[in-house]
Amino acid sequence: xxxxxxxxxxxxxxxTVIFLGGMGALFGLGLAYAAQKFxxxxxxxxxxxxxxxxxxxxxxxxxxxxxxxxxxVVARLEVAPxxxxxxxxxxxxxxxxxxxxxxxxxxxxxARIMCQGGCSKSQxxxxxxxxxxxxxxxxxxxxxxxxxxxxxxxxxxxxxxxxGAITMTExxxxxxxxxxxxxxxxxxxxxPMKVIEVLPASKEVLVACHSKDKGxxxxxxxxxxxxxxGMCQKVCPFEAVSVANNxxxxxxxxxxxxxxxxxKCPTGAIKDYIPVRSKAFVMDNCIGCNICQKVCPxxxxxxxxxxxxxxxxxxxIGCGICTAKCPVQAIDGTFNAxxxxxxxxxxxxxxxxx
Amino acid sequence: xxxxxxxVIAASLVNNFVFTxxxxxxxxxxxxxxxxxxxxxxxxxxxxxxxxxxxSWVAYHFVMAPYxxxxxxILVFIVIIAAFVQAADTMMRKVAxxxxxxxxxxxxxxxxxxxxxxxxxxxxxxGYSFIDSIVFGFGSGLGFALALVIMxxxxxxxxxADVPKPFRxxxxxxxxxxxxxxxxxxxxxxxxx
Lengths: 354, 193
Known about the structure:
The structure holds two protein chains of two kinds.
Chain A: H1 9-37, H2 44-52, H3 65-75, H4 88-99, E1 109-113, H5 134-137, H6 156-160, E2 166-168, E3 174-176, H7 186-190, E4 196-200, E5 205-207, H8 215-221, H9 231-235, E6 241-244, E7 247-250, H10 260-264, E8 270-272, E9 281-282, H11 291-295, E10 301-302, E11 310-311, H12 321-325, E12 331-332, H13 337-353
Antiparallel strand pairs in A: 1-4, 2-3, 5-8, 6-7, 9-12, 10-11
Helix pairs in contact in A: 2-3, 2-4
Chain B: H1 2-14, H2 25-30, H3 35-64, H4 73-95, H5 97-109, H6 114-126, H7 130-158, H8 170-185
């Protein structure tokens, strides 16, 4: 050991260089050794998948963030490549291509608000003056709404939405922008009233009410609540609507989105998400089979057998039932026409091939 | 033993790094938004603090002091801490992947944090013994953890509060920190070392 009594610059520089150089070399070698000894092989596919994912870390896939899903989908066979809701079909295809799995097309899903009773249409039990958050409001005796099933309107869903898809309207109801909604279910989980359901995008006719109160009570509380009159159940041609526990519900598996129940509902509790229903018209390839006349729920179709039929534009509600039933795809104009024509074309190609 | 306890209290409460020395504010504001990140950061912070203060004590007392290289301490301590954190990061990834995914991101963040550097520097200047240094590191880590947890629990509540628009987010957090710092003045004079 050297104990220099006085400061010696030459020694100081010498020791500095030796000490720092030695320390650098020691740490460098040590880290290099550690990096080799403790190296963890990262599958390059994980990075590729991670880069393909949107990176919102929303957790809709059920894993801890995008990184967690990327690792799981690469490492485990049973994890499907189409779990990323925000990424939609394009990301599912990319992930499938990287992992060598088959991506099944998954219908997009949107958050649907199952309540239309905004502050102008519903009654309140008391004046709530607490923190403007539904989770807080619900602690005060289940919320200030007279209806115990409805949307409280303090915008918790809008606050938690990672994609900014939910905005609050002036009537204190959430509005879901379906161009931004990815169906990640964050709002569904956050809503204390459980008034948000995430449902397939094509199911555009829904009973937007969760009230299980008796019809009389629902009516007292809200102008647009389901009073369980059973009208929808009666008119539905597909037996898709049923009333149970004082509440009508659309079975999304049976519903053909004809919107007939919407037109008959006396309170307007059934919501049609198709903004404008274009009406049906008959094209020249009509063979005059009379089927449209038989299936039309509003008697809008008419015509003589073996002659071109007509559809009364004043009566037609654009339900699309005739479009779907027409054997020669001669009816166009309804919301489902492109899909029906596409399916018929595919079927024709299939039969021709066979 | 009594002296060590005093050291812990002095480092964590009386001379709390965040509220009386105003160090480590970037991390303090960065990770105090949510309770679980705050707790994760605290655990990582305490362990890194204890180990780095012991490592730098060894380097300081066995190499730097005998050879009169004290003037290099800032540089040397940064290198020691950075190398240690990097090594811990690599090893943890292999040995304890679960822990790595929980705390790994915080490890990378605190490599050159000012509190982590301040602890070995204060140890060196105050001439603490090896045990004293470790205890001081632990106490400082504890103080930072306390600050983070207090802040996170208040900020979680603040999320739903009706804060005036210009104050939302960071501004109200600074106001809060000032108020808590005022409260921490109450600890001064509790112990004089």
